[in-house]
Amino acid sequence: xxxxxxxxxxxxxxxxxIETYIQLSLYEEAEATATRVLAVDPSNLIVxxxxxxxxxxxxxxxxxxxxxxxxLSIPPKPDTAQALHxxxxxxxxxxxxxxxxxxxLELAYAHPSEIAEYNAPSIxxxxxxxxxxxxxxxxxxxxxxxxxxxxxxxGCRRGKKCLFSHAPDTRSIRDDxxxxxxxxxxxxxxxxxxxxxxxxxxxxxxxxxxxxxxxxSKVAWWTNPARIETVRQLIEKRDARxxxxxxxxxxxxxxxIDNNKKSKKRDNNSDNKDSGDxxxxxxxTAGNRPAYSSSSSNSNCDETLVIDWESDSESEGELxxxxxxxxxxxxxxxxxxxxxxxxxxxxxxxxxxxHT
Length: 356
Hints:
A two-stranded antiparallel ribbon has the order 1-2. The chain has a two-stranded antiparallel ribbon with strand order 3-4. The radius of gyration is 28 Å and the shape is globular. Helix content is about 55%, strand content about 5%. The protein contains 15 helices and four strands. The chain has a domain at about 5-140: Serine Threonine Protein Phosphatase 5, Tetratricopeptide repeat, CATH 1.25.40.10.
């Protein structure tokens, strides 16, 4: 895998996306996303460990055990993050072995083909070398702030040149055609109709069930009312938490702007007073106030916020508050001003006609 900062940013984004899917109990989506990342970066132990977590919680115990054993097969360097991942994989491996009642070796001996499939993509040196020349951006869609409406509906002709995102994100899940289906629509919370929403509202290309171990299957979560309610509640809690953080940041920004204005005013008043003490009152006439200069060498105070709220934006790999269910934010996603809500659908239809 390329070690460029762009590739690192891309892997970090997808790693966080997998983690978010797990937090929302979207385990099948987390597993599928992790598998796509491992296809181009099979040596990424963090993503493989997260896939093991997703598989265990989804009930794919044999697959989870395969992932944990793969992580444990790489000796960690002491006092590094890899050592922490190793310890976590060891703990999770013991949990799965206890539930299955057999070890990984016993399972691999009894079901070699299934275990080989679960281990894919392989972490062997030959597989890593074969994939090392594959550019990540050619295999994984690069995330951008706003998802592409055309891509998720009729299809986008611009491909990699598109200025909007074709990548999956935490507001959607990917169907079998690669389109991003609105997560809020699946839980009955999307405020837009199928014309206006930038994500697809079609379930036609979503799998109706997921294949489990021993040739069993379970229905997809969006067809299970109990699972829909669980995911909906988790989404609401996440959005409320992020909205609260966003409001705290906005208050901090406003407070710092107000403090800067007060500081400038104090500096200006202080400089004006000093000028009056030093200079003869040549411009003063009866009934008139002195005409002092408002310029000051200290008038440009430090604009740095007390809370450096953008300091971790690069490491986050995504817009920190893109998931807040904000009407204004959703409208702006379409290039529509909040007060132009009534024209949203008409504009969406016009864009479709223009694109076709």
